[in-house]
Amino acid sequence: MRIRVLGCSGAIAKDCRTTSFLIDEDTLIDAGTGVGDLTLDEMRRIDRVFLTHSHLDHVAALPLMVDSVGTARGKPLQIHALPETIQALRAHIFNDLIWPDFSRIPSESDPFIQFREIAIGQSLPAGANRVEVLAATHTVAAAGFSVSADKGCWVFTGDTERNPALWARLNQLGVSMLVIETAFSNRESELARRSLHLSPQVLAQELENIDGDKSYPIYITHTKPAETELIMAEIKRFDQTQPGGRHIAHDIHWLRAGDILEI
Ligand SMILES: [Zn+2]
Ligand SMILES: [Zn+2]
Fold this sequence. Notes:
The chain has helices at 40-44, 56-59, 62-69, 83-92, 164-170, 189-194, 200-207, 228-240, and strands at residues 2-7, 20-23, 27-29, 48-50, 77-81, 113-117, 123-126, 129-135, 143-149, 152-156, 175-181, 218-221, 252-254, 260-262.
């Protein structure tokens, strides 16, 4: 399995694109502004999109991508999302006001997109891989995803705050790599708490939930561009001095757009 990081930033700026990952060539996880770096041909080959939630930084490029390649595809693009996410997309984006309702265009029987409801805990095929829908704790209905191939699974938390259900499941899975959000620095920890995102001090507490016999690389995503260096410095510091004096060094990296992860 090959994961191409199209965007992993918490906001836009030059060289900062919002969340989107291309799995192999045919599956997209979230459709933030990073999708705009794909060629027409690369977009045309995408058969399915899994959305973590309805927030704009995760769906912004979806309506535009459908418009770019809809006529060039022979079958509808499958959009897998929680029922609340689909409802939000139908009501607020594909509503014939903000953007055409491509679930009925060019015809109801042969549309450009089809919505597919998913549920937390569900596992479903995605090309050569399987996707499991993981719990998330956010201001709107949200999910994370575990994408598994033969050799292990790649896990993306989506946007989340403290998430005990996630760790309970991850400790059962053969995790090869974890991509976890840390949107804010510690000085913005109150904002992180209210917007249900992680800050470095809460991330450190969350990582204590990993079973002691498990170890895998951890990639930090969704940092605000203006705070990325501070966030990563705080994570490194917290990671070395855990609450209670424990000393656990995790294998932590900052994720960059353009990175290729392979499992
Ligand atoms: Zn969000
Ligand atoms: Zn987000």
